[in-house]
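[SOLVED] Predicted holo structure with S-adenosylmethionine

Edit: marking solved, answer below. Original request kept for reference. I posted the sequence and ligand SMILES and asked for the 3D complex as structure tokens.
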Amino acid sequence: MVSAPRGRDREQNKCYQAAWEMEKGIAAMAACYQTFDPAAYLQYNYTPPRADLTRKDSIVPWKLACLHRAFTEDDVSGELLLDIGSGPTLYQVLSGCEVFNKVLMTDFLEVNRQELRRWVQDAGGCSLDWTPYLQHVCKLEGRRYTWTEKATRLRRVIVDVLPIDVHRPQPMAPDALPAAGADCLVSCFCLESVSPDLAAFTRALGHIRKLLKPDGHLMLIGALGESYYLGGPGLKIPVVPLNEAQVCASLKESGFTLIRLEVYNLPRDMRIGVDDVTGVFFAKAKKK
Ligand SMILES: C[S@@+](CC[C@H](N)C(=O)[O-])C[C@H]1O[C@@H](n2cnc3c(N)ncnc32)[C@H](O)[C@@H]1O
């Protein structure tokens, strides 16, 4: 007869149970993503009102301003910028591509990687026209060059679009990065929308930390108070609802020093039924 676990055995059993539950949760999240629709996702989040570039209080201009500020501060430099969970979007590297000579995009899904490759190869068939974004960031940068020059630079510095799984202790193929890691990471709306709970979110932060050089920066953008978003028509993808304190605690626990946290509260007219997000955070942090 098997007796009930006692003392340390019971503790180990609890850990095993928690790990098992987390693995089941991660597999369920991966299943949700199998029917992710890049074109619909872009339409929901990257067209007005959320991407009204004429309004300072629209969500996309707020994100672009945070990224512009963070990437133009003197403490950020190096050769390689790595974008974690790029999805089908490019906005998150429009400022960083002026600082780093190499940008590596990544995503879990081939449909998203294809969407990015179509833009990089300038082959047509893209689901979104990124021109207004390029023009907007050129304006933030004081119009040092034209938007077409920026597009040419971005196409040149994106060196690859590779698979990633942030739930693996080694999220990318072993030879994908230089041995020392990337100089800087950027990641937007990825970790909280692919993790079944806060513990998995924190663990994923620890995994991506391994891809970064010592003292390298992390620019993390994410949703606050969100429990789901639409990844396509009728596809509700669960999200870990985070608050600011949890973001700060997770960063600390996974080996980052927070430099700055900025928060955006969603105006009423940005609540358009494609998610239940209440705010957005931007964190600039450094690997301890
Ligand atoms: C909410 S989207 C964010 C996309 C984009 N970064 C943005 O700012 O809009 C989440 C992305 O995470 C990707 N993803 C899903 N599971 C993942 C995993 N296990 N590891 C890394 N990325 C994952 C999805 O394919 C999707 O592109």
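OP edit: The CA atoms of residues 60 and 227 lie 20 Å apart. Thanks to everyone who chimed in.
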